[in-house]
């Protein structure tokens, strides 16, 4: 917000609106209270905001809502108002596939209700998708309460509210992430942009980066960082993978006629038709 120009609102057709999250000032360090308050407060404020906008201008009503999956309970609001919903998933596609499989993982007792992996082996959804160890799963946290709430309130709402939307925008490229995309049964995933946020993909599959290791005290030292940077910059293999493979595929996908370009174009055309 600070970086926006002073005349941003005059130049842009985008209006930024904030709504209360329902969290008391003295409770902002209690993650359990924060999640609960947000889930109770935000949907009501969002509903009031949509109704106010739609009643103020007959010719410019809200016909589509793009909602981050981390606030999935807002999908119920727009569904009740008869507005089409589209989800957006900012993280990697493999993490999205993992989120959709949380109910099955619980049922198979691969993870327990607290999200802890019960077996001494990585969670594997497919031979073509890198697995997750207990320390690598997306909801893992040092604090046990945050760990449990993150699983219950974030990952579980992805499959829970997927019935409210038919499309989900995802940060990936079809040509590079086809195995993970196949693991997502519903809704239709629209890969629209490149983002490699998963360490296993970067280091083991795409081979365009190096893992930073911690010492016996759990600290990644400056010497470790310096050594990996030097190796990264001097590695001909990593340079070749990044330039010849990843850059070429990503550029082609995002250019006119590419998969990401076509996905985004079809999405915009669909929204304009509502």
Short structural description:
By secondary structure, the chain is of the alpha/beta class. Helix content is 46%, strand content 7%.
Main attributes of the structure:
7% strand, Rossmann fold, UDP-glycosyltransferase 83A1, 274 residues
Strand content bin: 5-15%
Measured as a percent range, the helix fraction is 40-55%
User: H/E element string?
Assistant: HHEHEHHHHEHEHHHH
Q: Would you identify the regions where 5 or more consecutive residues have pLDDT less than 50?
A: 192-197
Q: How many domain modules?
A: 1
CATH class: Alpha Beta
What does this entry look like structurally?
With 274 residues, the protein is of the alpha/beta class. The chain has one domain (63-273): Rossmann fold, CATH 3.40.50. It is built from 12 helices and 4 strands; from the N terminus they run ααβαβααααβαβαααα. It has a 4-stranded parallel sheet with strand order 1-2-3-4. Helix 2 packs parallel to helix 3. The chain starts with 7 loop residues before the first helix and ends with a helix. Residues 192-197 have low confidence and may be disordered. Belongs to the UDP-glycosyltransferase family. GO terms for molecular function: quercetin 3-O-glucosyltransferase activity; quercetin 7-O-glucosyltransferase activity. Keywords: Glycosyltransferase, Transferase.
SSE inventory with pairings:
Layout: H1 8-11, H2 31-56, E1 64-68, H3 74-80, E2 84-89, H4 93-100, H5 102-107, H6 144-155, H7 157-160, E3 167-170, H8 178-181, E4 188-191, H9 199-205, H10 222-234, H11 236-254, H12 259-273
């Amino acid at each position: 917000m600070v970086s926006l120009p002073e005349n941003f609102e005059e130049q842009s057709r985008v209006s930024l609106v904030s709504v209360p999250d329902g969290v008391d000032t003295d409770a902002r360090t209690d993650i359990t209270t924060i999640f609960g308050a947000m889930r109770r407060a935000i949907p009501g404020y969002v509903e009031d905001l949509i109704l106010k906008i739609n009643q103020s201008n007959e010719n410019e009503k809200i016909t589509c809502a793009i909602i981050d999956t981390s606030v999935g309970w807002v999908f119920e609001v727009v569904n009740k108002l008869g507005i089409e919903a589209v989800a957006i998933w900012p993280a990697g596609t493999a993490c999205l596939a993992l989120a959709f499989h949380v109910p099955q993982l619980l049922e198979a007792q691969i993870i327990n209700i607290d999200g802890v992996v019960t077996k001494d082996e990585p969670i594997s959804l497919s031979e073509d998708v890198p697995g997750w160890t207990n320390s690598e799963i997306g909801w893992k946290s040092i604090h046990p309460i945050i760990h449990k709430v993150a699983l219950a309130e974030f990952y579980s709402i992805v499959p829970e509210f997927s019935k409210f939307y038919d499309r989900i925008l995802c940060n990936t490229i079809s040509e590079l992430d086809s195995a993970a995309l196949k693991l997502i049964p519903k809704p239709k995933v629209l890969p629209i942009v490149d983002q490699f946020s998963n360490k296993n993909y970067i280091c083991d599959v795409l081979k365009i980066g190096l893992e930073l290791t911690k010492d016996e005290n759990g600290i990644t030292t400056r010497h470790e960082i310096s050594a990996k940077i030097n190796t990264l910059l001097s590695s001909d293999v990593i340079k070749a993978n990044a330039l010849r493979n990843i850059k070429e595929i990503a550029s082609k996908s995002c250019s006119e006629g590419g998969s990401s370009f076509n996905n985004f174009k079809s999405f915009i055309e669909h929204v304009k038709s509502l």
